[in-house]
Amino acid sequence: MKYSQICGADATSVTVRGRSLMDLIGTLSFTEYFMLLLIGRLPTENERYFLDATLIAIAEHGFTPSVQAARMTIAAGPDNLQGAVAAGILGCGSVILGAAEDAGKLLHEAISRGGDGVTVAREMAQELRARRAPLPGFGHPFHRPEDPRAQKLLALSDARGTSGAHVEMIRAFATVADEVWSRHLVLNVSGAIAAVMLDVGFPLDSLKGIPILARTAGLLAHLHEDAHDRLGFILADQAATAVEYAEAR
């Protein structure tokens, strides 16, 4: 027999992580409840604060690929809200939106190696560069010279006294990245999310859940707007205009 420690329900009650759901309704914020579900206890004040901060930082970023996919899906099936949200979330990948997980793994490995942070960061960056691999948590198509969201999160971490080994290490990578790649690499919001959340104890294997949860809210906003001001077909038309057919040579 296998057991789950998350939730059980019967005809008269719902129990979540050992607590009556009726006692939680109207008592907890959704952020607190999410952390209870995820880690089995209520978050500390800093865990709650930074989860709120990172969710706000990543929930919305304009007409990203995930938003375009969702809007075009709802245009094709106006009664398929869940499918449109799913279409957008499927775009949470290592290049766009989902890079916090890879950045977290990078920081975890770097800290595990021990030694001086800048030296370790330079060695790992050189290894990535040698095999033509990207540096997780760095680079952005238009936020230059810095990603303001990343800078804000790191500043909040400093101000609240939670900056620890992971923030120190992401800054070490920022110090050496330009040298190794011979151009400026922007520390992006995914790198900052990984650093500040790992320093307050968020589980490494759930980092990708932050952008997934956050972007769901943003997608719902876009899809609500699309119900009143249809843009999905306009986006599809723009793709048809931008890309022409040409026979293979």
N-C termini distance: 61 Å
Mean pLDDT, rounded to whole units? 95
Overall outline:
flat
CATH-derived topology of the domain at 100-205: Cytochrome p450-Terp, domain 2
CATH superfamily of the domain at 100-205: Cytochrome P450-Terp, domain 2
Which parts are unreliable, with pLDDT below 50 for 5 consecutive residues or more?
none
Summarize the structure.
59% of the residues lie in helices and 3% in strands. With 249 residues, the protein is mainly α.
Task: Describe the structure in your own words.
The protein is mostly helical and 249 residues long. Among the domains are: 1-42, no CATH class; 100-205, Cytochrome P450-Terp, domain 2 (Cytochrome p450-Terp, domain 2, Orthogonal Bundle). Helices cover 59% and strands 3% of the residues. It contains twelve helices and three strands. It has helices at 21-24, 30-39, 45-58, 65-76, 81-89, 100-113, 117-130, 148-159, 165-181, 189-199, 209-228, 232-242; strands at residues 7-9, 14-16, 19-20. A three-stranded antiparallel beta sheet has the order 1-2-3. A hairpin with a 4-residue loop joins strand 1 (7-9) and strand 2 (14-16). Helix 3 crosses helix 11 (209-228).
